[in-house]
Amino acid sequence: MNWIIYVIIGLLSGIISGMGIGGGTVLIPALSIIYGIRQQTAQNVNLIYFIPTALIALITHIKQGNIEKKPLLPIITFGLVGAAAGSWIAVGMKADILRGCFGFFLLAMGAYEFFKKEDATERSGQHG
Question: For residue 85, is pLDDT > 90?
Fold first, then answer.
């Protein structure tokens, strides 16, 4: 019966990943809450999970022409630096503190998305 839960978590995370939201918003809390996996371990599973799901989503979005190429190099470059720094910080953090930081981040992003106002380009479907 455990495999059914894994299938549901995987499907939900995959759908969310494909939308560009990030499957970790489902995967990390599910692994931590349902299975009692430590926060750092759940985040590491998410990082491994992210590689194939991101690749599929990327291919789909490239085919649809949804990739803005101009900002890629600086975003990727500094994203790699940030990932290294974040990994170093997360490894040294207590799981409870890391879980709290992750929860606060999800709450803050959810509140932002809930309360943000659409601008004219978002309503018309155009991207700058």
Answer: yes
How far apart CA 50 and CA 22 sit, in angstroms, is 8
Tokens of 93: 């953090």
Which residue is listed with tokens 């455990």? 2
Please state, as a whole number, how many other Cβ atoms lie within 10 Å of the Cβ of residue 86: 12
CA 50 remoteness from chain centre: 8
What is the DSSP secondary structure assignment for residue 107, as one 8-state letter? H
Q: Are the beta carbons of 42 and 28 closer than 8 angstroms?
A: yes
Residue 31: partners with Cβ closer than 8 Å, 6 or more residues away: 9, 37, 41, 42, 45, 46
Q: Residue 120: what pLDDT?
A: 55
